[in-house]
Write a structure and sequence with these properties.
The complex is a heterotrimer.
Chain A (H helix, E strand, L loop, with lengths): L8 E14 L2 E14 L3 E5 L6 H8 L7 E10 L7 E2 L8 H6 L4 E4 L13 H12 L4 H14 L5 H4 L9 H13 L5 E5 L7 H18 L2 E6 L2 H7 L2 E6 L2 E7 H6 L4 H8 L50 E5 L2 E4 L7 E2 L5 H8 L1
Parallel strand pairs in A: 3-8, 3-9, 6-7, 7-8
Antiparallel strand pairs in A: 1-2, 1-4, 4-5, 9-10, 10-12, 11-12, 11-13
Helix pairs in contact in A: 3-4, 3-6, 4-6, 6-7
Chain B lengths: L9 H4 L16 H11 L1 H18 L1 H4 L20 E3 L3 E11 L6 E24 L3 E10 L18 H37 L1 H16 L2 H10 L7 H31 L3 H8 L4 H9 L4 H25 L10 H5 L5 H6 L5 H23 L6
Antiparallel strand pairs in B: 1-2, 2-3, 3-4
Chain C lengths: L1 H27 L5 H11 L6 H11 L5 H15 L4 E2 L4 E2 H36 L4 H15 L2 H15 L9 H31 L2 H8 L4 H19 L1 H19 L4 H10 L3 H29 L1 H4 L4
Antiparallel strand pairs in C: 1-2
Classes of the chains: A alpha/beta, B alpha+beta, C mainly alpha.
């Protein structure tokens, strides 16, 4: 067990492994993910769907659905001035975990409409969230609920408390979900693709709202997205995931201006740009993301990688290489830099050849 | 800057059609996948075997039954079931009966007499019949060596009919009336449900109202009314078909709802749009492109509605409003068991009900298994 | 809410009209007119029929007139005078005959429905929450059996046990026969209801709003009881709509087997003797009551489900 290194890290995930045990076989949805969320910062996890970014987020709060299970790794959570606790050790149904959920770490989901029960008013669900974590009576909780709705930019909040989710637009529902997430003043907000199901203008407003609320409250945000535009807008740090592993980590400027990993480069290359030259084809990444149960051997990206070295990339796992302060890339191209992992096999193979 | 990564949801579940780069598992046809999934369902497999056996019995009824359905011996009214025994010297045999006549009512009561032995043989000569209505034969799988000796393995009824033989003969009617009824319901359901789901709008509203109407009225009183209105002089065949039509009139609504639901969800699928853009006419889009894509669902709901038909026929015939003797079905046989006093003397008359329960259970298992397997891509 | 009820009532009108047509068609179905059949039978029994009375009857029922005229006569008699016609077999008005027996039928059906709910709800809940447990398999097995055993078979078996094992009388009204009838009628519906509730609940338990509630720290008990059960209750209520017709139909057969004084045996004997006005009226009344029951369940559903109440579905 490694001691927690960065002292300013609010959340440190180390070697998180979440598998789904299906009848057809084990799906390694998250396979040794490590990342840190510093206090007061926004960390974006970016990757194609199926890369395990949502499962990573859900693993933090023990919300992985059956038949999925966190099988290895540590999730260190550092409360104000207290010794860090390992959330991975809490049972998903334990009292301790329930206190963390919504109280210290809140989560906002992809489908705002479906995340609110249509049988109760939004006010009832908001009041429930408040009273779960704060010693308020019904009246006080309702006042706080109206306050929260106002803070997330919902007009006439007192009336809206008595509305049902199906009477509100998707953007409004997401604002309500954010209000619910803020109910007990959490230290970390996990936003799992909160804008994917919304239309573009609403997306921008929700992103702005999260950004503002973060500045106001000083909470950290772990933002899961597949939208590089959003990343550029709000991220302090970026984590790029591919097939259940972190392929590159770094500051937002470094990632965008000096990507190290071939996958990151390919991703950035596939962004359409205004005035990039008419009549040119948009660059794409060849092939498809393989099914998690058909994971390629060696580097998971090698079948699609333009720089893959035959006989090397398809045989052994690439090392996690530190390519700068606070930056890593999981690729053999950078192996002459410092190795972070204790992955000695690669060297041995080199010698044999 | 708004740029979105390729968000192929299909990559998570495994795109069924696009099994291009990985062979093997994903290259299997849909029919194959359904079958594989179905095989994992143990109860459904048991059900399937049972159903196959029951239909084989229906097919070879004349050969399997010891006597014909019209053979009776009024000397043996309410004879209780005999146990088939085996002996190394005598081979198969059953014990005979001794009868005592009630001094007041003159009704005979039978008891199995352990001292008598009636030899039972396989492939014995007995009543003549025509197998499949074509091949004249007189051999029966099992029966007494001497045709005049009594053999009632499941007992006899008031007139001395052999219950086992009649149940075997009844299998044919009971198990086919469901099939014919469902076939008719299916055709009605596909046409109306298909129109409802494909055209939507006004057509849908009207058809839905009709469906709701049929579902909101209690079926059994209506069946009773309709079948009581059948002319008495109609022969067994006419009656058989009339009853199937009556069953289908009530049964088509479920099917129509299933079909409609599927059509509604398929309407906006890309392959339907592209078929339409390719210039396929409406009937072609409906019956060539849409229908085959949910055949397995259809088979599942067909399997699940046969039991309802069998139960309905049994109930109607039990009340004497469905099929009438001399036609033999399980429901007709149960007519004998209407009275508690009769049951107290001859509880074995309830055995045809057991056959109904087994057949219905087996069909339900198969239907459930099919329904789970119909969507092989769903977890 | 009121608008919703109004609309539902309005939708009922064509259904009721169609039911009355079907009932009248059943009255008309037997070949020849029933009066002739009746007279033939009376004369074969050696009784004399007064031709003047016959003419009066012919007039009253509009015999010999076209279908729609006869129908109009029949339905307006029912609607405006509560006159369902005369039972030739009993020599009494249909309405008095039916009124004698209807309370029993309604009582039996309501009790069977309550039985269904009370039994199905906890079992379905348990089955869904403890999926694949022993209890779940047991409930599923019983459910399968309940669906596979014909009503009357179950009634017969219970009667047989009561009669020959316990030596109890099983005919006519007694707490025993009514108990048997309620249990028998309830069983089929219960089996179906357990399956529906279990499937719905399993669906609901996977919905995002349950995950969202869990993510805000709600307890597991709240997660099951407050959210999904509340949701699964809706189809449960609307199942009255499909359980009721089955119950009413089953009641006819079960009451026949148990010889209870409900409308079932009356309908049965009316059909056997081709006492068609009685039979048609019973079918009409029973069907209309079923439709009204379904309407009540729809209103209950609207009251429970804000989406329906507020007209979003």
């Amino acid at each position: 067990m490694r001691p927690v290194q960065a002292s300013d890290a609010l959340l440190e995930i180390d070697g998180l492994t979440t598998h789904f045990f299906t009848r057809e076989g084990t799906v390694r949805a998250v396979d040794g993910v490590s990342l840190t969320v510093p206090a007061g910062k926004t960390v974006c996890v970016v990757g194609e769907s199926g890369c395990g970014k949502s499962v990573t987020a859900r693993s933090v709060l023990g919300l992985v659905d059956e038949p999925g299970r966190v099988v290895a790794g540590e999730i260190w959570w550092r409360r104000d001035g207290q010794a860090p606790v390992d959330l991975a050790r809490y049972g998903p149904k334990s009292e301790e975990m329930r206190r963390v959920r919504g109280g210290e770490i809140s989560m906002v989901f992809q489908e705002p409409m479906a995340s609110l029960s249509p049988m109760y008013t939004v006010g009832a669900q908001l009041v429930e969230a408040i009273r779960l974590h704060m010693p308020l009576d019904r009246e006080q909780a309702r006042e706080r609920a109206a306050d929260l709705l106002r803070r997330v930019g919902i007009p006439r909040p007192e009336e809206r408390l008595d509305a049902y989710s199906f009477q509100l637009s998707g953007g409004m529902c997401q604002r309500v979900m954010i209000a619910i997430a803020l109910a007990a003043g959490p230290a970390l907000l996990i936003a799992d693709e909160p804008t994917t199901a919304l239309d573009v203008t609403t997306q921008a407003r929700i992103i702005d709202l999260i950004h503002e609320l973060q500045a106001e409250t000083g909470m950290s945000v772990l933002f899961i997205t597949h939208d590089l535009g959003v990343v550029a807008e709000i991220a302090d740090e970026v984590v790029v995931m591919y097939l259940g592993t972190v392929v590159e980590r770094g500051g937002v400027d470094e990632i965008f201006h000096d990507p190290k990993h071939p996958y990151t480069r390919a991703l950035l290359g596939s962004i359409p740009r205004m005035g990039a030259g008419t009549g040119q084809r948009l660059a794409t990444i060849r092939g498809n993301v393989p099914h998690p149960s058909d994971r390629p051997s060696g580097c998971p990206f090698h079948p699609r990688c333009g720089d893959a070295v035959a006989g090397l990339c398809d045989r052994s796992d690439p090392p996690d290489v530190r390519v700068g302060p606070g930056r890593t890339a999981r690729c053999v191209l950078h192996e002459n830099a410092d190795l972070i992992g204790d992955d000695g096999q690669l060297g041995a193979e080199e010698v044999q050849r | 800057m708004t740029s979105v990564l390729p968000d192929a949801d299909a990559s998570v579940t495994g795109d069924p059609a696009g099994g291009d780069e990985t062979g093997g598992r994903r290259a299997a046809t849909q029919r194959r996948l359904v079958w594989w999934k179905f095989r994992q369902h143990k109860l459904a497999m048991v059900g399937l075997v049972l159903i196959a056996c029951i239909y084989l019995v229906a097919l070879f009824a004349e050969f399997l039954a010891p006597v014909s359905s019209s053979t009776f011996n009024s000397e043996y009214t309410y004879a209780p079931p005999q146990q088939l025994r085996i002996d190394s010297d005598a081979g198969l045999y059953v014990h005979g009966y001794t009868s005592t006549v009630d001094p007041e009512t003159f009704e005979p009561t039978f008891e199995v007499d352990k001292s008598q032995k009636i030899d039972v043989g396989l492939f014995v000569k007995g009543d003549e019949y025509e197998l499949f209505g074509l091949i004249p034969w007189d051999r029966h799988l099992i029966g007494p060596e001497d045709p005049d000796q009594p053999m009632y393995l499941l007992g006899a009824n008031r007139n001395g009919y052999d219950l086992l033989s009649r149940m075997i003969h009844g299998t044919r009617v009971s198990m086919t009336i469901g099939l014919v009824g469902v076939a008719m319901a299916l055709i009605l359901g596909i046409i109306l449900g298909g129109m409802s789901g494909y055209f939507a709008g006004k057509t849908d509203t009207v058809i839905q109202r009709v469906v709701e109407f049929f579902m909101s009225i209690p079926g059994i009183p209506l069946w009773m009314g309709l079948s009581a209105a059948l002319p008495h002089e109609w022969g067994p065949m006419q009656r058989y078909f009339a009853i199937t039509v009556i069953l289908a009139i009530i049964g088509w609504t479920d099917m129509a709802r299933v079909v409609r639901g599927r059509f509604l969800s398929l309407r906006n699928e890309e392959f339907v749009t592209s078929a339409r853009l390719d210039g396929s006419g409406r009937p072609r889009v409906i019956y060539r492109h849409m229908l085959p894509s949910f055949t397995s669902h259809l088979i599942a709901s067909v399997t699940l509605s046969i039991p309802a038909m069998i139960l309905a026929e049994t109930a109607l015939s039990f009340l004497g409003l469905g099929l009438q003797p001399p036609v033999v079905s399980w429901g007709v046989l149960l007519q004998d068991a209407q009275n508690v006093r009769v049951l107290a003397t001859a509880p074995w008359l309830m055995i045809p009900g057991l056959a109904v329960v087994i057949a219905v259970l087996a069909l339900n298992f198969v239907g459930d298994g099919l329904r789970d397997a119909a969507d092989p891509y769903k977890k | 809410m009121l608008r919703y009820i109004g609309r539902r009532c309005f939708y009922m009108v064509p259904t009721l009209f169609a039911i009355s047509l079907v009932a009248f068609a059943i009255i008309q179905l037997p070949p020849g007119d029933f009066l002739t059949a009746w007279v033939t039978r009376l004369e074969s029994e050696g009784e004399q029929v007064d031709p003047a009375m016959l003419d009066g009857l012919r007039q009253r029922y509009g015999l010999g007139e076209p279908f729609y005229a006869q129908y109009t006569k029949w339905i307006s008699g029912i609607l405006f005078h509560g006159d369902f016609g005369e039972s030739f077999e009993y020599g009494r008005s249909v309405s008095s005959l039916v009124l004698d027996r209807l309370p029993w039928s309604i009582g039996l059906t309501v009790f069977a429905l309550l039985f269904t709910w009370i039994v199905a709800f906890p079992i379905g809940l348990y089955s869904a929450v403890r999926q694949y447990s022993f209890g779940d398999y047991l409930a599923t097995t019983i459910g399968f059996l309940g669906l596979a055993i014909p009503n009357f078979m179950l009634a017969l078996a219970m009667m047989y046990v009561a009669y020959s094992v316990f030596g109890l009388s099983t005919s006519g009204i007694s707490p025993l026969t009514i108990g048997i009838a309620v249990v028998v009628l309830g069983t089929a519906g219960t089996a179906g209801m357990i399956r529906v509730l279990r499937a719905n609940l399993l669906d609901e338990l996977k919905k995002p709003y349950v995950v969202a509630a869990r993510a805000r720290g709600a307890s597991e008990k709240t997660l099951v009881i407050k959210y999904p059960v509340r949701m699964a209750l809706n189809p449960f209520v609307s199942t009255i709509g499909w359980v009721l017709p089955g119950l009413v139909g089953g009641e006819v057969i079960v009451a026949q087997v148990l010889n209870l004084p409900t409308t079932g045996p009356l309908l049965f004997s009316a059909l056997r003797t081709q006492d068609m006005y009685l039979a048609g009226s019973i079918i009409l009344i029973v069907s209309v009551l079923t439709v009204i029951g379904t309407l009540l369940s729809d209103i209950l559903l609207a009251w429970l489900d804000p989406r329906v109440r507020l007209g979003y579905r």
